[in-house]
Design goal:
D-Maltodextrin-Binding Protein, domain 2; six-stranded mixed sheet; 11 helices
Amino acid sequence: MQAACCAAVVALGLPAHASEDEHILVLGRISDDPAAHFNQLKPLLDYVVPRMRDVGITEGRILMARDAQQMASYLRRNRVDWVTETASTAVQLQARAAARPLLLTERNGVSSYHTVFFARKDAPIRDLAGLRGHTLGLQSPASTSAYMVPMTALLDANLSPEILLAPNDQPSPDRVGYVFARSELNIASWVHKGLVDAGAVSSLDWADPERVPRAFRADFRVIHETDPYPRALELVRRDMPPAVEARLREVLLQAAGDPAARDALRLFFHTSRFLPLDAASQRSLDTLRRGVQRVRTEVE
């Protein structure tokens, strides 16, 4: 563990110039816990690199970024070749650095999910329009399912979000007040206790009794569900050599059928397999990209 921690810290400041060291494949990740994420990323990188020798890749490195802005800078300067991220961060990296989606990432057998809005059954809120003048619990600004997608849904419904300092703050009568609860369990607890009027979580968290306890859910009503969007994506820098990109795509697509990759995939955020980007997923990403832009300009 100590060695992994040291390696992760080194990776944070690593001058990995992908264009100068073309034999090195640099895998990037936005992280607030570099040591933990290093241990999740390295086994898959160690699996991939030996299978890319025929296109000149002989070494792998990991480079962490503190946020999407820093990762976009790494991509623009060719310091990162390959990034694994959630859908909303992926579309931000596309916009900021022209990163290209390579594959969909299926985690725990799920390649897409959606956002669920809910309120107490004894509350008067029955749809998104009913949130006007009420409060909404979200997770954090970094969340796709419990921030970016809910914000987009509110804007699409012609509702005006207003950030609150605490759950007991009251929004303007014509706005939807939102507050960050930091976790899905907190969102469910705050709605159940009446600290906020409604909450929004991913469909996966909605079905997880550790995040939305069954005793709570029995008192909740679903008031809205969004269209699905990809669970996660693998992206590559805009000018990755075509032969390297094609080989990386091939290796990742074949990994689920290779017993040697089983443990590496499990550690890689419980990845079950990688999938080609289909037309439906591309449409949902395009929609999400437009939504993220609206949130950035109209809310933040």
